[in-house]
User: Fold Transcriptional regulator, GntR family from Actinacidiphila cocklensis.
Amino acid sequence: MTSVTSFAPDSVVLNRKLPLWYQVSQSLRASILGRRPDDPLRLPTEDDLAGHYGVSVLTMRQALKELEEEGLISRHRRRGTFIEPAALRGAPVKLLGSVDAIVAQQSGGHTAVLQHGPAALPPEVGEHFPDLVEAVAYRRLRCDETGEPTNWAENFVRPELAARIDLADLERWPMTKVLRDVLGVRISRITDTVEARLAAPETARLLQVPLLSPILHYTGVTYDESGRAVDVVRIHYRGDRFSFTVTMEAP
Assistant:
């Protein structure tokens, strides 16, 4: 059976001034919407979830009913409760622009490299690197001039390119600029996807925002001139600090 901690947020502080079932349903919704494609679809039992959140089984049952009515989960007698994969997200917004526009979008403020090293590829990243089992991952936090966090990013880069990257450069420039201007990678295109999400525990902690706050989730895939993906980045922007504008020009 799936454990609670492998699916639900690690910790949730409940506000006793708001209905507990509502807070629990919102927390569980954030976990469902933020789950990885390879995560299990089966939810823990009502008893396990109630124990995790520190609420009664009746409260947990009411929270699950709310999610069932929204179409996020389905409940089957004797089989359990399952996430509905087709109900996870709406269609994302895809943006097109120049490489310089991408560099400008990802620039500004102060950047700190939190972690870097070899990492297994999550399924949604691995699909862009069919010839790799792992890549080199870089986790970076960007703050504004006052030191307030504005976004955090996770890049997955081909090992042969990562071996030539100076971490000091990543504290000065976006990965796209480092790849193109420092390493000399001839970039042919970048595909961008932006989705609205709710802040999961890790994002809430890094960006110093409340759990379930709105964020903008950006995914960018950079390709070289041979059509091979060289970098996949996932950036989590604070929803109260960023907006994306798409300009459509007539031919």
